């Protein structure tokens, strides 16, 4: 984290940072979120959309300004209402199921002292799967969570809202990337089941889709919700619609769409049909490690082990550092090591397979399949170990 210094709040460079949030019935999580940032924000704006628990009381205990907002099925509108109430020079936006990592929180203020920046990008660690949260079960994505408080910067889309920066004409020099991590727990199994997020999101997305010339992201988000609920064919149709609509608007479809598309095809077992398409997607996004990983899986499941090894080794070269793309933790490390082992074992390169499994276990000691594969190798040098899913 060299090169970053903490701004002295008593210096003449001091500027005000506002935290803006929208909440509803978040009594179990809100305090944890606010504790993570209270030392660095100067104002807390809470927009409450109808809480029936202790959410407002908890917010007030942190000296927050709490505003009631009649819910109208529009997350962007609620966020924009909060922005209108904020008085800071800069805005940080969070959700109640998030917290800023303690080791990096003070670095948020570095953006305030630089007049040349308009946006601050941080890394979101999106956890999935069962409790407790584990970094090895997460996705990484860089997001704009800090921005200069300006009437031209507002959120759009009623659900899965995004900060609309399209009219600002910003350059790369206008954005600072901060070594700050935000932990997001909202898509862990328990959260999704308890809150019924998929049903709510699908309802709002279908409503948004009725608008004339709706955002192509809407079809992507519908596909994502359908994928999570196991409706794979419908999810595939939605993501293809999103890709087509981006192209119709003369925009290159974002990398996230191709990640979802090939996640669905792998889940459907459509390996042969996915080969040409994944190669095209990699031509568009050659630095996206997840796409190379998916290509490795496709070749491995087709028993083209030598080609699969090239893909998995390239994943190790790319690592998991370019979080401009949504990256699954492990694809540039322990998962690729494991599948390198699978490929070598099927090619009867047992020493190389053993080495790959040991590297897997160095990074992820409780990787059960790697342990089992090592037992097979040690038990019989003639064992051929089938690829997962064969």
TrEMBL record:
Keyword Cell division applies: no
InterPro entries: Glyco_trans_2-like, Nucleotide-diphossugar_trans, TPR-like_helical_dom_sf, TPR_rpt
Keyword set, alphabetical order: TPR repeat
Swiss-Prot/TrEMBL TPR repeat ranges: 289-322, 334-367
SMART domains on file: TPR (SM00028)
Keyword Ion transport: no
Stated name of the protein: Glycosyltransferase 2-like domain-containing protein
Lineage, opening ranks: Bacteria, Bacillati, Bacillota, Bacilli, Bacillales
